[in-house]
Amino acid sequence: MPGVKKYRVELSEAQRDELRQMVSRGQMSARKVKRALALLGSDQGLTDEVVANGLSVSTDTVRRARKRFAQEGLHSALNERPRPGQKRKLDGSQEAHLMAIACSDPPEGHTHWTIKLLAGKAVELGFVESISDEAVRQMLKKTNSSRGRGRSGASRR
């Protein structure tokens, strides 16, 4: 039956006050503010379409906020779930080992370590089974290591 909401939002006065304060402070992410406003609109009996149009979000966003509020509570409805992301290619010890190689003298016939050389050396030494050039590049970038820069950045006093 259209128009009947499976998950109803009935906020307590304390929850309404909390949401209004969160929205008025302006220190939350835009997504969290929109979820709070979606819950407040749904609590007032507005349709998902009206709330979604007023917030410039999809009706699915409003429905998901209502559903999570009904099933898991206010905190869960407002906050994003952790995203799994991709598993790290190297653990801390492997990164340290790779950095030590990068800081050592380059192989014979080379003036400096390249990303390909570092990846190959890591596999050769056996502390990783395989590693892409991109994973090595990202690790070096994360550590602010620049093998091409002549100075460390310290002043010459």
- Euclidean distance between termini CA atoms: 78 Å
Residue share in helices? Answer: 55-70%
Residue stretches low in confidence (pLDDT < 50, at least 5 long) are none
Tell me about the biggest sheet?
none
- The gyration radius over C-alpha positions equals 26 Å
Number of strands: 0
Number of H/I helices: 8
Order of helices and strands: HHHHHHHH
Assembly level: single chain
Q: Beta-strand level of the residues, as a percent range?
A: under 5%
Q: Which structural class do the helices and strands define?
A: mainly alpha
Write down the overall geometry: rod-shaped
The whole-number mean of residue pLDDT values reads 86
Summarize the structure.
The chain has 157 residues and is mostly helical.
SSE topology:
Layout: H1 13-25, H2 30-43, H3 48-55, H4 59-72, H5 74-78, H6 92-103, H7 115-125, H8 133-142
Describe the structure in your own words.
This protein has 8 helices and no strands. It is an all-alpha fold and 157 residues long.
Task: Supply the key terms.
single chain, 157 residues, mainly alpha, 8 helices, 55% helix
